[in-house]
Specification:
The complex is a heterodimer of chains A (407) and B (331).
Chain A lengths: L2 E2 L3 H10 L4 E7 L4 H17 L3 E7 L2 H14 L4 E4 L6 H5 L7 H7 L1 H4 L1 H7 E2 L2 E2 L1 E6 L2 E6 H6 L8 H13 L3 E4 L6 H14 L2 H8 L8 H17 L14 H6 L2 E7 L3 H6 L7 E4 L12 E2 L2 E5 L7 H11 L2 H11 L14 H12 L3 E2 L2 H4 L2 H16 L4 H15 L1
Parallel strand pairs in A: 2-3, 2-4, 9-10, 12-14
Antiparallel strand pairs in A: 1-3, 4-13, 5-6, 7-13, 8-10, 8-11
Chain B lengths: L1 H4 L5 H4 L2 H4 L1 H31 L2 E2 L13 E2 L3 H7 L2 H17 L2 H12 L6 H13 L2 H12 L5 H10 E5 L5 E5 L13 H26 L3 H9 L4 H12 L1 H16 L2 H7 L11 H9 L7 H33 L1
Antiparallel strand pairs in B: 1-2, 3-4
Classes of the chains: A alpha/beta (407), B mainly alpha (331).
Amino acid sequence: MFRKLTTAAAALALMASGALARDLVINFDDLNPGPKAAFEAAIAKFQAENPDINVIANNNDREAHKTAIRNFLTADAPDVTSWYPGNRMAPFVDAGLFMPVDDVWEENGFNEDLAAIKATMSRDGKIWGVPYSYYQWGIYYRKDIFDLLGLEEFATWDDMLAGCAKMKDAGVTPFTIGTKFLWTAAGVFDYINLRTNGYDVHNALTAGEIKYTDPRIVATFENWKQLIDECGFVENHASMSWQDAIAPFANGDAAMYVMGNFSVDGYKNAGLTEDQIDFMPFPTIDPSIPLAEEAPADAFFIPTNAKNPEDAKKWLAFVARPDVQTEWNATIGQLPINSKAEVSDNKFIQEGFALLNSATGLAQFYDRDAPAAMAKAGMEGFQKFMLDTSTMQEVLQRLDEVQAEVY
Amino acid sequence: MAHATLPDTDLPTEASWLSRNKLAIAPWFFLAPALVFFAIYVVGPIFESLYLSLFEWNGLYDAQGNSTATYIGFENYVKLWDDPNFWTSLVNNVLWLVLFMLAVPLGLMIALFLNQDVPGMRLYKSLFFFPFVISQVVVGLIFGWFYNPDFGVVGQVYKALYCEETINIVGNVTFKCAGSPPDILSSPEFATYGIIAAGLWPQIAYCMILYLTGLNNVASDQIEAGRLDGAKGWKMLWYVVWPQLRPATFIAVVVTVIGALRSFDMIAIMTQGGPFGSTNVLSHYMYETAISEYGERYGYGSAIAVVLFAIMLVFISYFLWRMYQDEKGGR
């Protein structure tokens, strides 16, 4: 499974410094061409700056990494591993498998430069990792269809409902989605909840502090019901993956898609040009609620059992540097988190950067903020509700039961 | 040469314990590798599951390598009792067991049909056997596409009957339908039946091949004797052929029960237990709660495994008892 890719730079460094070189083992989790290239470029740069460190990089498939990390943190810990913040890091933090890195943040001024993400990287009053990238969520829409129907980007919920009516008259399904793997439905739920109740309620809900039958969450579901009734999603969404759901979008049968920025590649591969697609933030529902956005981040962590924590901290400081984040994210088409970094001139990246910089809070995503068992039950409930909105009470009550068990 | 003949006479007295008992030891010697692996990979995990089902554990060890599990007694089983997903899975398991049994008579039917002398019969037989050769994963994929309401056969037929082709707003071809096309794998009512139907396809082929070999061994003199006495059709089948197929039927039932209980791969490929858990069976639900991305509840997953094991134990005991009876009868 593991692919050892000791880079050419690593070999060079080893020759140059001989036996003095200290090994730094980094486990990474993305074999896709873009992320892999960005990771390797960063290692080469790090290696050039630190010739006395011999970087050994293990790059693994993302799903395999999720399984492997549970073993290697105890059995054969690397010095640095990639992982996700929010609740995804909680089991490892609670089991004492990650090392707090408050000092790295302190020494490098990350408390200011990475301020937006600090809350997400923290648990029990300590900071546990350093993020290198994130991306925005929102509504991707068919610009050409909007132009044909004389529609503008929706600023408010009512605008959107009115726009949907126009689309339906023209025979266009407003939203596409594929809920076969469940998580896409959580994106829609998160946004309606963030716009109905705000960031604090999102956090309180995923932390198990408020119930699903709470009137505020019921209000979220009522809004969702309205979206389903008056806008509507493509039929058969339960049998489609998020990639399958691009097909009606590309064919012009559906006009909008609540998604993350990684989906842009998918639209282009389906034959859409950049002029045909555009991005808008999810419209406001209650104007008094400050706007918070979904922005899942990827980060690096140091296992407690790391053999070389000193150099691991150097790597963490390195990956959050503005110049490194600029290059890394330009390669993978995502957003740098360091506020001093620059973004590429891609229009989705530009819009996303502006959106996330003005956000008052950054949610990770329902399935990263809520514990695994809760997330699974929650997303199944969302899917059930989307297929039949009359099951709302039943779904919410079931989620309350699961919540009582999980937390 | 003289050297070779000499020891013969001394052998009985000098024989070691090993050679004296070699008849008793030899079977154990040959069984040993299998027994060792069976103990490590089958018997051990059974007891480990029993033990783990009494704990709440997310599968992690701390930095020193100590387990983070906490003992909670029978609480996992109490939770199972109140878990609607568990009951859905259990009901689906029963559905699988009952409907999968259709493979036995259907396999017999095809075997009887194919058991004739026609030129090229071997080709037809192998074509019927073909689905069993394909991996379950592939069968699941094929049926998943077959049921797909957009591009699958089901969807295409529906479109041809109830939809008209129109041009949408951006000028692409699309379909306007009277109602929504049947989406078997996303409907909580029908999805399980859809998967069972997919599972039956290779299982029928398997039962068919068992019966075909069984039919080869049917004594032709008895058939002829039956003919002389005027038996034909159903009577011939029921009174003469069927009794001779009993061993084949027994094996067919055994493999079908086992097949129904390990229906994991079809479900994992076709629906992942969805929509919202309505096609789960115990084995897949166990995987989901313990090992999958949203699981990490090893204690709870072990409790499900124990329940599944208890169900299997009923069948296993029955089969073992039957085989034991047959052995006794055979001696």
